[in-house]
Amino acid sequence: MKNYHALLLFFAAALLVAAGAGCSAKVKKSYYLEQANRSFDAGQFDKAEVQYLNVLHADPRNPVAMSRLGIIYFQEGRLQKAAP
Fold it and tell me: In sequence order, which residues have a C-beta less than 8 Å from that of residue 32 and are 6 or more positions away?
């Protein structure tokens, strides 16, 4: 019976850790996206690019990051990167 309780406690702790990691990733993505949008709106495309790439690292299909990176690359004449 003791082993059952220890095993149950272990799985509960593992679940909490996994849930916490997911929230942390969402918070990071949100932070990077907010910072990137601010930099983009201010015309600081070099900073915005780095932050949008961080967003795409966390969420590879984020439409805002993808479209804004395309705009940045197009405006800077990096058409090879802008096309995809």
Answer: 51, 52, 54, 55, 58
Residue 46 has pLDDT above 60, yes or no: yes
What contacts 82, CB < 8 A, 6 or more positions away?
A: 70, 71, 73, 74
Mean pLDDT calculated for residue range 53-72 = 95
Q: Give me the number of domains the chain comprises.
A: 1
8 A C-beta contact, residue 65 and residue 52: yes
For residue 41, how many C-alpha atoms fall within 13 Å in the half-sphere facing its CB? 6
pLDDT of residue 11: 55
In a domain, residue 52? The reply is: yes
The residue whose two tokens read 């996206």 is 33
3-class SS of residue 59: coil
The pLDDT of residue 62 is above 60: yes
Residue 82 belongs to what domain range?
25-84
- Specify the pTM: 0.69
